Amino acid sequence: MYKLKLLAALAFGAVGLVDGQASQSYTWKNVKIGGGGGFVPGIIFNPSQKGLAYARTDIGGAYKLNSDDTWTPLLDFADNARWNYWGVDALATDPVQPNRLYLATGMYTNSWDPNNGQILISSDSGSTFTPSSLPFKIGGNMPGRGIVLFFGARSGNGLWKSTDYGKTWAKVTGFTDTGSFIPDSSDTSGYNSDKIGIAWVTFDKASGSSGSATPRIFVGVANKGSTSVYVSTNGGSSWSAVAGQPTDFLPHKGVLSPAERSLYISYSDGAGPYDGTGGAIYKYNIDTGAWTNITPVSGGDLYFGFGGVAVDLQKNGTVMVAALNSWWPDGQIFRSIDGGASWTALWAWNGYPNLIKSYSYDDSLAPWIGPNYVDITAGDLQIGWMMESIAIDPFDSNHWLYGTGETIYGSHDLLKWDTAGNVTIKSLADGIEETSVQALISPPSGPPLISAIGDVAGFVHESLTTAPKSHHTNPDWATSADIDFAGNNPSNLVRIGTGDNSTKQVAISSDYGVTWNQHYGAPDNVNGGKVAISANADTILWRTSGHGVMVSQYQATFSAVSSLPSDAAITSDKKNNAVFYGASTSTFYLSTDIGKTFSAKGTLGSSTSVFDIAVHPNNTGDVWVSTDKGLFHSTNNGTSFTTISGISQAWGIALGAPKTVGGYPAIFVAANYSGVAYLRSDDQGVNWVKINDAAHGFGSASSNCITADARTYGRVYIGTNGRGIFYGDASGSAPSPTATATSTTTSTTTSATTSTHTTTTSAPTSTSSTTFSSSSSSSGTQTPASGYGQCGGQGWTGPTTCVSGYTCVVQNDFYSQCVPS
Ligand SMILES: *[C@@H]1O[C@H](CO)[C@@H](O)[C@H](O)[C@H]1NC(C)=O
Ligand SMILES: *[C@@H]1O[C@H](CO)[C@@H](O)[C@H](O)[C@H]1NC(C)=O
Ligand SMILES: *[C@@H]1O[C@H](CO)[C@@H](O)[C@H](O)[C@H]1NC(C)=O
Ligand SMILES: *[C@@H]1O[C@H](CO)[C@@H](O)[C@H](O)[C@H]1NC(C)=O
Ligand SMILES: *[C@@H]1O[C@H](CO)[C@@H](O)[C@H](O)[C@H]1NC(C)=O
Ligand SMILES: *[C@@H]1O[C@H](CO)[C@@H](O)[C@H](O)[C@H]1NC(C)=O
């Protein structure tokens, strides 16, 4: 069974184009955003080989650390068939044979990912991998994704063991506690209603001898209110609950300090990575069996749970712990050099609203990441949040790294914490590109690229190789859903957000996105979807998420456009201000009255779902439409379409600079062309060359967006769901065209019905910290929160009202606070 699955996986990976299909070599690089951009739940140093370290992400694969502090991605080969490889739920680096690396991969355990998980096995430190299929799912982007370690499974699947370097796996039958904790059993999507399962596995290397299995193993299980830490002293044959353990909270991390003969355990009352309002740090002495509560704070100062734990293997008694989520005024990290008897923190109050900061902040490698100051009224966090991983280099006590919801911070001066009482916090995620890209534009003038991105808003990319100084601001939304430019006035942009629905989610810019203004005609409580701006920039067409299609001219109040289906793909003509296009299921729509009304035009074969529409930059009426049934081209405003032969399914589509001056634009498409590939055509879709290669799969094709450079022939940008933005330039010579035109004109329908259309539910385009279901939090009978106390936020179950004189104000998705009225 295992062998069959393995073969199937390999066969998928080998699927290419049909024999004889041409390809051209391309050079692929990340557009540099720098600083990561998403959650880093795990950072692990190999204890035996100096300088060997890895980081894992929840939706963007795994990375290896280089000696110059940069990171190299390891899973860029993951293609459409293997998109779930980018959800890395656990990582193990072999302490005995350091070249061996194991990754447990899979994206979701609910229906969002239909595939089982797999262990990816490398024996060359991550250069190449062999997959070993698992008979259950793995959820790298699920709740609790910071606490699962190698071979402790989710979903009640228990503890698994391999004795052949990960090739085959068997359930550890003597271990019966599979973990009962469920974040929210009422979540019908299955995302929050799955069991978190085994949280961590920690080996006591000192208990064994070289060459034989480690006898003493500790396992932490996601239970709250019952026993959660187990030990085996015979290599896993039999297990018992560790006596005297605390049972109030979930154990998040268990880290062994061999010199102290102790296990440090962080606890939180939530699975994370967003929640947790209480917790503890305990130390368990292996020899005496004593448990000591060494929690660094207590009382009203303990309003968070704990995540990351690190020990300095060279300094007996040096331990660091991170608050998993202290949403206000900032995250927090504690350090002890006496085994937890006393602690120092990165900041302390110096009389509200002032903080004493025992660190200097450095975001020079990713200046956008800021903030460079902590504005406690705005709820900005400098130290970070979602801090499930913290690590001290086992060969260098000055070198530390920790992962947050947004980046990796660390420095090479950690010992200054103890001497000068001041340490550097520097963004050290250079090379990690972990964003979920929602949309990209490459206008014909101005900056080459402007992005709309999940969680980190998006950027004006003045340079493709330098990290931007700022993300889109004012309005500030965590996620920008879409962006467009006006064809005749390309400095004029529109951007839409998915943020807090109490603010208007449409923004406009007249300087290529350097500055933005809110569109005051946008309704409240409407967000997301797709947006298009007319060629002269006076009109905005918005296909909202769940509120139909609407249009606004001259910043007037948006009005409904009932003649276009609410799931339509939309785009604007780039030359004729009056023309907008739409498409839904198999019907193409045209508006010639600036988006007020649309009429049905031609038919898109037997399509049931439209992905995208691309327009010729200069020729009104010349449009390309990608659907679940292929790629369609019209040169007469969609009155009739030509079906591009050989393409059975198409996703992102873009038109870019032509090969020859005055020629037809180069066309780029992600398509199923006897296998999923990224293709370019220089002759209107007659001949295609494949431009991606075995090392660049770009993950899920249906989650990606594509745009082509309007000025540089051959250059294409691919926005991924988890691995940032790639740009590709041709580096090899193009094959000569061979095909003869076999396209067929399919339709001249002009009276297609508009009455039936289905709403498509696409796979979730998850981002690292926005995709989750909220749990209900309000309770009418609770006593109000005190002044400056928490009164709301993701997972908050406390009071949602404030004492008299204070008002509850949303600071961010996770934290609302009582501020003076
Ligand atoms: C580490 O410190 C503890 C006391 O904190 C001591 O008992 C132990 O012997 C020390 N171990 C080593 C290897 O120095
Ligand atoms: C630590 O260094 C930073 C940067 O020089 C400084 O702003 C901060 O005040 C220092 N903190 C302490 C407690 O000395
Ligand atoms: C946003 O809208 C949703 C659904 O309409 C609602 O449940 C939620 O409370 C709104 N949030 C805010 C901050 O207004
Ligand atoms: C497409 O429609 C526009 C607006 O009505 C019109 O100006 C143009 O001539 C049409 N093009 C074709 C090829 O029909
Ligand atoms: C569109 O027209 C402009 C101006 O004439 C020209 O520079 C550009 O190359 C044209 N683009 C294409 C794709 O034909
Ligand atoms: C690609 O198209 C072929 C032929 O239509 C189909 O068998 C295959 O399942 C498709 N692949 C994907 C990933 O959709």
What key phrases describe this protein's structure?
60 strands, binds 2-acetamido-2-deoxy-beta-D-glucopyranose, mainly beta, 821 residues, 2% helix, CBD, 5-stranded mixed beta sheet, 33% strand, single chain, 5-stranded antiparallel beta sheet, disordered N terminus, globular
SSE layout and pairing:
Layout: H1 2-14, E1 26-30, E2 42-45, E3 53-56, E4 62-65, E5 71-73, E6 88-93, E7 101-105, E8 118-122, E9 130-133, E10 160-161, E11 170-171, E12 198-203, E13 217-221, E14 229-232, E15 240-241, E16 250-257, E17 262-268, E18 279-285, E19 291-293, E20 306-311, E21 319-323, E22 333-336, E23 344-345, E24 347-349, E25 355-357, E26 359-362, E27 389-392, E28 400-403, E29 408-411, H2 416-419, E30 423-427, E31 437-441, E32 449-453, E33 460-461, E34 480-485, E35 493-497, E36 506-509, E37 517-518, E38 530-533, E39 539-543, E40 549-553, E41 559-560, E42 569-572, E43 580-584, E44 587-591, E45 599-603, E46 610-615, E47 623-627, E48 630-634, E49 641-643, E50 649-658, E51 665-672, E52 676-681, E53 689-690, E54 705-708, E55 716-719, E56 725-730, E57 744-747, E58 790-792, E59 806-812, E60 815-820
Parallel strand pairs: 26-30
Antiparallel strand pairs: 1-56, 2-3, 3-4, 4-5, 6-7, 7-8, 8-9, 10-11, 12-13, 13-14, 14-15, 16-17, 17-18, 18-19, 20-21, 21-22, 22-23, 24-25, 27-28, 28-29, 29-30, 31-32, 32-33, 34-35, 35-36, 36-37, 38-39, 39-40, 40-41, 42-43, 43-44, 44-45, 46-47, 47-48, 48-49, 49-57, 50-51, 51-52, 52-53, 54-55, ...
The chain binds 2-acetamido-2-deoxy-beta-D-glucopyranose (6 copies).
